[in-house]
């Protein structure tokens, strides 16, 4: 028999009681013994500090009159002046309204789409058909928004295939991409087209985890497929749906620069210009750094507040479930 | 069990809907392919549906002779290969200590990482940071600022956590240090997850767009997606010849179709082989915590 010492976890260095004095001793001993782990993680820590925390700290220029030649440290502080400015600024309301409207559409139509698709997939009994269809549905996820935007523009152009099909039925040609009334629909549909298949994966994983005996019992009780879906499949998916919903809400106003940027034309700015594309033009291109940082910060704060509110609500319903 | 008429009807409509929807995932690409092989007259008079009309390879041979396009292609291949390698190295080195209880500060560090997922820095301070680091117009700006994808790193960490720690102990007894354990035991054991995460990174680098828009002002250094975007917005540059005067067997419509596909084909070609890894990987991610 090995003695007790050998059974110790390698990490739990036992320090004899008599010499146990200070908290940091434990860390120092640990560091000396496993110094390589600390070396390994160094690049990662530097990465997060430089590219995540430094920009986060840099958000203070929203409270400054940031001058590029003075830098962050010697630019003058202006308090909330930049925020006051954006709230009197007409463009800001336009951009905010566009962002919120598109975000709401995406939540209402885009969010449930993969849930519904996963439920429909679940009813497919031919495994080969299911696999082939899934492969097709996942494909667009791997295309860039430049490519997808290009495809959308080509399909909807005056000589594109959509107008061609419209022509067969005697409808006149519509310049979809130039007309404001279609822009948001195009954003939502192209978003669903690109990511609906990919989005099903996580739900299908949740469905796969359901105990088959639940269905058997339901069949005994005379439940048909629809009833099984409503009373077994959906409730089991609910925690997954809730988590994804919360993650979605936290990024509510972050629609994704790539998609909008690649679908937008000056003709559709009034309905499609969102915070990210506006901040890019006014900030990066025109150099209004402080004002656009204030807008970005406002966006982050709204996102965090929504997450906080919905998370509280979710905690209540989750408890209500049990 | 006997199927009711309602069930059968549902099954019929479900298959019909899913097959139709699945077809729309591929049809746009096939239509563009048909356009890219059609004559300009046919393409512009709404005659091309899924098969080329007045077949010609003129558009393809024109864009394949475009040195600018190939240059961007080369840049994208470079950042995809170098970026994926660096990202994997950084991610693995970060994931390994975080998956070990011996690493006493792993909880605060994990928390610090999770916080960055919730609080995203606004675009402008991010832009200014990268610029202050002197990375403007450097290809490093396309790699380093996104070197670790937190989600990808967590996938690796989750997998590492599942590897029995007895293996560590026996390796340590055999005189292996931590780096040896990582590279000789963990990596060989996690080949599938390494493949999956590498693919996630590679696709991300291949499709890099926003960072290039932010940081690369010199068109000579544009990656493929940025170049493609420029050509799509001003296709005359893509033609680079006077289409009105000359008698060419292509026009901006057919050239754009070919260029979009040019940027897509590498992904579509590898996709069938890699698909199973993608799916496996995103399942792993869903298991986190």
TrEMBL record, chain A:
Signal peptide from the UniProt entry: none
Which regions form coiled coils?
none
Q: Which domain of life is it from?
A: Bacteria
The entry's keywords: Cell membrane, Membrane, Transmembrane, Transmembrane helix, Transport
What InterPro entries does this protein map onto? MetI-like, MetI-like_sf, UgpAE/MalFG_permease
Which terms under GO biological process does the entry name? transmembrane transport
Annotated Gene Ontology cellular components are: plasma membrane
Chain ranges of the ABC transmembrane type-1 domain: 96-310
Provide the transmembrane region boundaries.
35-56, 99-121, 142-162, 182-208, 229-249, 289-310
UniProt membrane topology term: Multi-pass membrane protein
Spell out the Pfam families in the cross-references. BPD_transp_1 (PF00528)
Kindly list the places in or outside the cell where this protein is found, as annotated in its UniProt entry. Answer: Cell membrane
Among its keywords, does the record have Transmembrane? Answer: yes
Where is it chiefly localized? membrane
Presence of the UniProt keyword Transport in the record: yes
Family statement drawn from the similarity comment of this UniProt entry:
Belongs to the binding-protein-dependent transport system permease family.
Question: Can you name this protein?
Answer: Putative aldouronate transport system permease protein
Query: Which organism's genome codes for this protein?
Result: Paenibacillus endophyticus
UniProtKB/TrEMBL annotation, chain B:
Provide the topology term for how it sits in the membrane: Multi-pass membrane protein
Per the database record, which ranges form the ABC transmembrane type-1 domain?
A: 73-271
Identify the keywords attached in UniProt to this record, alphabetized.
Cell membrane, Membrane, Transmembrane, Transmembrane helix, Transport
PROSITE patterns annotated for this entry?
Answer: ABC_TM1
Transmembrane portions of the chain = 12-35, 75-96, 108-128, 140-160, 181-203, 255-274
Look up keyword Cell membrane and say if it applies: yes
Q: What is its main location?
A: membrane
Organism domain of life: Bacteria
Q: Which Pfam families match?
A: BPD_transp_1
Q: Which Gene3D superfamilies match?
A: MetI-like
Gene Ontology BP terms: transmembrane transport
- Compartments (UniProt record): Cell membrane
Cellular-component GO terms for this entry: plasma membrane
Similarity field = Belongs to the binding-protein-dependent transport system permease family.
What is the official name of this protein in its record?
ABC-type glycerol-3-phosphate transport system permease component
Organism, scientific name: Paenibacillus endophyticus
In the record, what lineage is assigned to the organism producing the protein? Bacteria, Bacillati, Bacillota, Bacilli, Bacillales
